[in-house]
Amino acid sequence: MEALIVIILALAVLMAVIFVVSAPLRAVHRPPGVGGVRINDVQINQSTADRADLEATREAKYREIRDTELDYRTGKLSQEDYAAVDGTLRAEAVEILDRLQALERESPGAGELGPGPG
Amino acid sequence: MAALGRVCLLLALVVCAYGIGASIYGVRTGRVEWSESGRRAVYALAGILTVAFAVLEVAFLRNDFAFNTVADTSSRTTPTFYKAAAVWASQEGSLLLWAWLMSLWSSLALFLTRGRIRDVAAYATAIILGFGGFFISLMVFYAQPFAITNPAPPEGVGLDPLLRFPTMMIHPPMLYSGYTLCTIPLAFGMGALLARRVDAEWIRVIRKFAFAAWFFLGIGVLLGARWSYSELGWGGYWGWDAVENAALLPWLTGTAFLHSLMIQEKRGMLKVWNVSLVLATGTLAIMGTFLVRSGILDSIHAFGGQTLGVPFVVLIAVLIAGSIYLVVTRREMLRTEHRIDSLISREAAFLANNLVLVGLVFVILWGTYFPLISEALTGQESAVGPPWFDRYTVPLALILVLLSGIGPAIAWRRASIANARRNFVTPVAVALLTLCALLIGGVHQKPFAIAMFCCAGFVFGSIGQEFFRGVRARRAMAHEAAPVALVALVRRNRRRYGGYIVHIGIVVLFVGVAASSSFQHESELGLSPGQSSRVGAYTIRYVRATASVSPDYDSANTQGGRELSAIMRSQPGVTLGPDTAHTGATLSLGAVLDVTKHGRHVATLYPSEGFYSSEEPTQGSVGHLIGGQPVSHVALDSGVTRDVWTAIAPNIETPRLKRIVTLGDKTLPYSNPAEGMVAIAALASAYMRNPPQAQFHLIVSPLVMWIWLGGMIVVGGGLIAIWPAPSAVRRRLSVRSRARAGAGAEQGLARA
Amino acid sequence: MNPARKRTVRLVVALSVAVVLASALIYTSFSAASPALSPSQLLRQAQPGRSYLLTGTVLAHSVARDGAVLNFSVADRAGGAAVGVAYTGTVPDPFREGREVIVTVEKQGGQYIGERNSLITKCPSKYKETPASEKQSS
Hints:
In chain A, helix 2 (42-73) packs antiparallel against helix 3.
């Protein structure tokens, strides 16, 4: 009797595993437009990754600008030093924004940041 | 049911192999569905191991002694809580726990990064499944959790009494969570090198994993120290034991990584350094796991004699070789043009912090593995003791504390010298004030402790100044009341101010360590009832003895039990009762201690020693009831300023008491423990009528509680630092910043 | 000094400091370490005034307490030579005859004196994960 339970449970686990693991492979055979975006191209993957990286760099740069302002307001930077560093940082931020815009123009809507299929 | 467990392990092995193949195939051909399938293999692994773990857990709870691990570590009389936790009391069960926790944490990590850094994540998935496969192979081929014996023994051996403390059973899951979490940044680090993508997005992702690992590992280490101090009969919290060190090492490299990652984020520098730190953290975590199981080092944790040593050495060799190979072949990609601008900058302080931490790692690593090193180099195995560790870690710790006070006072990139000088006035003043207070208070000796206290003052001054100025700046801008401004300040700058709180916690912890180790009063002596001893400023008097007898059967409802109760009623002073403390001790002998200071009552302490039964007939029908390993139950009075700690070793082997046991052994049958318990009861009342001198270990340590308080502050600060800013704030921030950036750029261009 | 040269100088200085410190560390570890010896090795090699880590099994019927001093004998794991030790300090809970111990000893006269609080008792040979029996540190 116990042997039967063990066999049933083992089969259940096996079925569940196969179902979960094969889901993305089965989804590929569905035509696109039914569910989600199908990203199936190395180039598109690359530009998604570049875009994500630029956005992360942008966030980091904004944080740096805020940190520097806080440094100035808590007395760690003099007025002149702050102006210099702040200017440099803002210029770098603008450069990042420009690159993001360029990327946007190149491949509009490609690979939005977010969960992919599966 | 054991068959189900075995099937699960085999299935898990197959899933690991599949997942590795699918992930690598997916990332190399760009066919995302295969990488997705590989990621889901990790989810599936978590599911399978959950089933396997449940099978083992249920076996423990059902007293299924056919399972070898259940028979070895549990028994019918083990309390349910300890039965449930005994799953990881054995080598096999703990391997299962490790693999299970790793699969759970990895599933969470991969779920949270789905859709991001796909190529890195795919390689990371393969590496994670590689680790999973390794541990599962160990369970399939070397240490099988689901091995059974037919026919099943009727009763198990029971849980080692030393493990019958709640903290003791929670410590492994916490520590394993820390260790397994270290493998995730390792996997993502290797993945990043394989995918040739060590960039801003990677930083954002890996910071969270590294923090989680650092967080849980730190809690695990602290819990271990707390357990050692409050439960073991030794009275210390850190002994530089090999296994303590093994858990501390990845935590130190993790701390270094969290700091130097900020430099990479801001300046794009130190990529090689950071990647190496991440790889080192994971490798050290695996080494720590290995140390505990292989018995290669003489340590109290060493389980010795197991065949797991060789596979682990192979794994570690592969990790080290693989890491070096990856870093060397990717060094072009990791190169950077940027350099540190100025030595008076926060970057420089962070770099110094990293160097000190790595120095600490080197010292501790060297000292821990010295027995192996000395044997390899000189043929003679030698070991270094705690004094050697202290000699090098104490100065390094002092520098570390000092740096955590310097960092907040200087700016990123480049600090203005004049400003820097001004910023250090308050911290230095606080440090000097501390020094004066100590000297006036009569504290002259122990220069290192005094140095630590002064450095602590320096840090408190520096960070306090930061909070004060921050609140002042905020109020100037937003015109809020001070408390509101404080909350808003911390909320809007979580990483900075959360980090400050973490540093305060660390410094508080170090103050506790310095005070309790340098200014401890200890006394070890024999006392008879009525006698007292001076320890520091406290007088501790042995008021009277205590004895309690707890048979591990229901004393109310059996014939033998009722006889026993009758006998006990005629013996005043000895308590007979159910094992409410769940210690499982047959006999507990202890003392009531009265602690006074300058005549004023401070506390009453009840240390005791528990005597457990063993399964050895050779010890005799009565002897075996108390012949198992004795366990000391310490009594502790904790206060903010000091702890009073006591342990007792009662003398159970006086000629009179031994006579009772010998007589019982001769006349009573082994097969009826109820009758043996009558003899134990007689033993207890004989002890109470005329208590022999007992050995007491008495310790008064100042500021021990600061260690645990400091740890809690670190936990709180860490959570604040990592808590994500509300997305609304982030959006507003980015829109405004973009606008200002645009305006600023025009200004910048105009200036240039 | 141009920045590149300054950086090189800094690097060289830092590396030299690291090398010096590491060498000091390594050198002192060899002199500060206590050799781990079995009883038979100890009987052969022990010099008075040096401390050694004696590892072996507690000999049956050799444990006797004399006030604050615990006397016991440590034998080779495989049996054979045994060394008597006079030990003061905390005794770990698992300590008993037949258990494996490590104790720091020093030869004084004809006797081996155990260093205070240095007695470590290892877990029993049957594997059980007892993460710490007890450890004493001086």
